[in-house]
Specification:
By secondary structure, the chain is mainly α. The chain is 54% helix and 11% strand. The N and C termini lie close together (9 Å).
């Protein structure tokens, strides 16, 4: 059975949102640029609250930003 994991489209959506930087997104949701980088790279799974804040800052529904996949 394949391992399920959380994937995201944060990098793409940041670019589409006026080329928002990791630091700008972090400032908007109250985390560091390093945290955003780790989430984007799949090294860290955000809390549910952070995931909703990221989606809100990007103007997208949660399921357009994060997907649970095999």
């Amino acid at each position: 059975m394949a391992e399920r994991r959380l994937v995201n489209r944060i990098k793409t959506l940041r670019f589409l949102a006026g080329e928002m930087t990791q630091a700008e997104l972090g400032d908007r949701i109250g985390v560091t640029r390093q945290t955003i980088a780790a989430i984007e790279q799949g090294r860290y799974s955000p809390t549910l609250e952070a995931a909703f804040r990221i989606a809100g800052a990007l103007g997208k529904p949660l399921d357009e930003v994060f997907q649970w996949t095999d």
